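Hey, I'm writing a tutorial for new members on how sequence and structure tokens pair up, and I'd like a real worked example in the thread rather than a made-up one. If someone can provide the structure for the chain below, I'll link this post from the tutorial.
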Amino acid sequence: MNILFLTIGSFENFEAGSVHIDVVKTLASKGHQVYVACTNIAPEAEKVSFEQKNGVTLLRIKTGAVKKNTNLLKKGLATIMLESTFIKAIKKCFSDVKFNLVLYHTPPVTFEKVVRFIKERDGAASYLLLKDIFPQNAVDLGMMSKKGLKGIVYHYFRRKEKNLYALSDYIGCMSPANVQYLLEHNPYISPERVEVAPNSVEFKVSGLDASQKKNKYGIERNYIHTKYNLPKDKPIFIYGGNLGKPQGIDYLISCLDAVKDREDCCFLVVGNGSEFSKVDRWYKDNRCETIRVLCSLPKDDYDMLARSCDVGLIFLDHRFTIPNYPSRLLSYLQAKMPVLCATDSNTDIGRIAEENGYGFWCESVRPEDFVDLVDRMLKSDMKAMGIRGYDFLCKHYLAEHTCNAILKHFKISNEQNNDKLYSRSCASE
């Protein structure tokens, strides 16, 4: 069938993959014709441009900075303008493609009119991959309020959120806690329309046997530890990913402060985001042998670095009432690392890790609780925990699982499934 995937992502690093790219590639590998409408925020970009990647048609649409670290007003205006910009581009470039399914994710919640347009024009089914519960997450962090002047903004986005849920034939959530939260706070949604369709990755086969893998990763680990000046005789705890308000940076820094004098392990922070400068400033003011802070790396470099570490770290602000489920967990599990989760009490990422024997959890309030988890991890069989995490990934968090959850709802005829692949470029029109 013809599938349209709407995203505010840029899909630039298609070969390296991501939780969204991997799902798109897997759908294409199953014989579906997949079209992606994505953003291009480069100032010199054309209004629309086409690209073919692995049988996927990418329509790049010039938009404002909807994901870039910029001020909230600019980002908010760019987000509001998304709908009209996307509809105009789709009308122009996909006028003779009939879509059977429109697939989209949050953020943002402002694709409602685009989804409605495709559903009404083509009679398409709709599936929402719920990756972000907005605007409540902004309320939790004090960036929005339900009252006063900020309340006007909140109620605008809350209305868009409700409309998007109502328009979606099915909603795939990241975890059971997400399903429960969504139904409790939106009672108009039928439970039959909501299910778990988790963050997932494409399974990559190395082509090496066990002895070759051991030799390869041994050489790789030695190289990485030398390159980044990491100790070769101590376990490395790594945090990789966004460093922004959702991660509870003040707590993260307090944890680093609590472990900076340890001699039995090392801590590595790799990332970027609105709060990176705060972490970097603390690091430069507290130079110590047990902690390293690096700016974000290309995905291939980061993956190699992660494979050379021993324990993955996940941080979330304790104020969250919504159950986040960070996708960085996947890179840790792929690298066969156990995880330490310091989060709010509403997400189930730590509980699932503990129940399945690949991690430990504490609430992100007291740094001493994090220190206790470090001690507990160092006394555990980290290799066995990492293998359990990898096995859990293979059983639950592969792109194949997410695609199967989506596709099981949609039975279409061979005639529809054999619709021609649309490849005409309208960039020059």
